[in-house]
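Replying to the earlier thread about multi-chain prediction with a worked example.

Input:
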Amino acid sequence: MGRFVFFVSEAFRALRRSAAPSVAAIVTIVITTLLLGVLIPVLWASEGKASDVRDQIDLRVFLYDDASRAEIDSLQEKLAAMPHVKGVEFCSKKCAVEELERRLEGDLKGSISELNSNPLPKSFNLDLDDPDNLEAVRAALMPPNSAGKPTPISPAIDPPVGDSRQDAKEIREVTGAVRYVLAGIAVLLLVASLLLVANTIRLSIFARRREVEVMQLVGATNWFIRWPFMIEGVIVGLAGAGTAVGILWVCKEVIVDPLADNFNLIDNFSTMAFAPLVLMLVGAAVIVSALGSGITLRRFLRV
Amino acid sequence: MPSITRRSTRARRSERGQHPRRQSHGQRRPRPSGQPPIIEVNEATVVYPGGHVALERLSLQIARGEFAFVVGPTGCGKSTLIKMLIRDVEPAAGTVRIAGKDINAMPHDRTPYLRRRIGMVFQDFKLLSNRTVYDNVAYALQVIGEPRSQIRRKVPEILRLVGLQAKIHNYPDELSGGEQQRVAIARAFVNHPPLLLADEPTGNLDPETSIGIMQLLYRINRTGTTVLVVTHDREMVDKMRRRVIALEEGRLVRDEAEAGYHDESTQEFAARMRDAMGVDELDYDSGFEH
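Result:
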């Protein structure tokens, strides 16, 4: 206990006596934490949006108008049992019209009632576990027959089996690309912040390598030298992250929240909650800064 | 100025134990045999990366309680010898024993414990510049886990011994070179180590200040601590009339054991040194030994 108090007081002494490098380290951490604090929710929201779009992709199996009830029932069972299929939903001719009505707007809406018969087919909507499995499911619905020609698994199916949207493949590609780009940016950002913080800490410790050398000559063990530096790192990390979180909170209260109240756009974005974000940022800042100090010291500590 | 001849006559006399003052100062005599010498270097060779041989088959022994000098020109291996004794460098061949223990056979994490038993004084003082005089000395005690009450007692005491009680809350850069060296000595001695190594302790100081520092080291030696001083100041060494180990190109070229040794109080010592070096008296004394 006495030791711990000593180490903490040593850490504060070092911060006081070498104010400039400490401030530099704190400012670096404030900036990187701010950057991460803004970009992580944005990336998160973009990723959420991309996932939403992907989830909307489903596979639609159109049926012949003259398919019998029994054929439809047995097909539904088969479909439900297929791998990668999460849910099967039957859409009758009536439901197809209603769906069309929902999509049309204005004048066009009324034009449906002008049809004297319903030309829309019955269909099954297949909800897939992952849009990437779309091709696999489609192939399973149309296995090749003995002649090698794709044939539907049920006579009720009106080939070809399509997806709900023509551009499903494109959406898949775009959202996939967005996802990779976002992940890439996040990783780059994280690496950049790590290097920046580690470098700043290295500089501030490098300026004090003579001090470390003297401590060793007096017979201080490596951990005796290292603890105050690591505690100093924790303090620097806490101060930096605390400041950054304060700024983020003010921005959230003053800018983001009023906007979210006024516009549905921002409200619709599902992003990270503030509390876990803060916890994550503070934790990361403290760990990086303490480990940065500890690891940098190793170079000066070889006996 | 004492000549070489005179010194070696004295040496022979003291080896036979005939020195008249020797008997009356029992505490100055090396401790009874059976205890291993405090320093025992055996055929040690130190080679630096790049192939430079800093020490070559060096052998020497220093008994407990001795006051000895290591002299030689720049690059002769003096500083390497000191570094080897605190295990800052390791010999490629040969052994180094401190108080009978082969220090290079110890695991590396024990090295700090070796250094706690050896006081170190350097030419450039090596004080922690962001700490006061008090905290610099206290650090040596904090390192060994001394309780705070003991630190509060011991630090002012040792600073009184080196005559710096008035500067206890100053920072090193507010002190003169001589004062900084006194702080360094106080730090080295506050644990009462059995061995004190000084690497050019007077290298940056003027003659009068140097005498004050040597006087302090001598005083420490009289408490039973072995003192080994590395220097290139031949004049000073000649005046001190203590054992002189001379190195040249990493080899031992001369070892005059107890050359002209004679026991004296620190007062007598300082007076003689000032006289011999032609320096006026300037009272550094703190009344430690009246």
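Residues 266 and 289 of chain B are 8 Å apart (CA to CA).

Feel free to reuse this layout for your own posts.
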